[in-house]
Amino acid sequence: LGQKATICAKRDDLNSALAYGGNKTRKLEYLAADALAQNATTLISIGGVQSNHTRQVAAVAARLGLKARLVQEHWVDWEDPGYDVVGNIQLSRLMGADVRMEDAGFGIEHKETLKNLREECEANGERPYYIPAGASDHPLGGLGFARWAFEVREQERELGVVFDDVVVCAVTGSTMAGMVAGFKLIEKLYPGEKKKRVIGIDGSAKPVETKAQVLRIARNTAVKIGLKEEDITEEDVILNEDYHAGTYGIPNKGTWEAIEYAARMEAFITDPVYEGKSFAGMVDLIKKGEITGNVLYAHLGGQLALNAYSRIGETK
What we know:
Elements: E1 5-11, H1 23-37, E2 42-48, H2 52-64, E3 67-73, H3 87-94, E4 98-102, H4 112-123, E5 128-131, H5 143-159, E6 165-170, H6 174-189, E7 197-202, H7 207-224, E8 238-240, H8 253-266, H9 275-287, E9 293-299
Parallel strand pairs: 1-9, 2-3, 2-5, 3-4, 6-7, 6-9, 7-8
Helix pairs in contact: 1-2, 1-5, 2-3, 5-6, 6-7, 8-9
Keywords: Hydrolase, Pyridoxal phosphate
Protein name: Putative 1-aminocyclopropane-1-carboxylate deaminase
GO molecular function: 1-aminocyclopropane-1-carboxylate deaminase activity; D-cysteine desulfhydrase activity; pyridoxal phosphate binding
């Protein structure tokens, strides 16, 4: 990349031994505690067929001795022989989750399907705990990555480095939102320290919705961690729209080039849905000189979905 930046990666794809972990595990740490406090017996959630999130919900449920009932919607129009049987959905089934396929398309909003599932669980005598898509639009959804920001600060001190920018994929929004709120609190507590930009790379192909959700969740999270809602401004939410490849879950040539570059340079494995797109964005922005200095790339997981994209380089 012409020595324009120094890149480090924070590996949330390696953050847990709990069925391959991932960014949702940080969020579920808070939501699972809340579920247990409410004496829930069943975790219910929703995602696409190859949802990393629902796989992590299934893992948490298995670990805690709870039931998991999952709705897997048709979020991605992708033809692959193993798309609905390998990868994330295979592990969810393996861990004992009740997996239900639905035809509804992609959307980060709350879905009517889960309302029906909740009513079914209650009719069966279960006590369901509702987790929205990505564990995002939930009162506790941003807390895991607000704490992540403080973890980064500790690691900077240990490593003797200060990061200028953090690059992260954004779709349902609470990962980026938590980072924005967490780093804002650090600014307030340690005013002499260098401020960071959190640069989101949109993977939803619905950037207006994603940006609005990131801002709303960041403000809600801010209040929970001791800030004021108005401490988070629209300028704090930087969401780049240039690398989503036009459709959620569909890679383009640039996505695959980034995936292969990372794999062949560092054996650094990314996926066609999330990390391939955010990595493509980071590399291109560095080449353009829009990102310089010390860069922290947030790897959120997702490699399991590669199994469902078996033809390397295929686009639509």
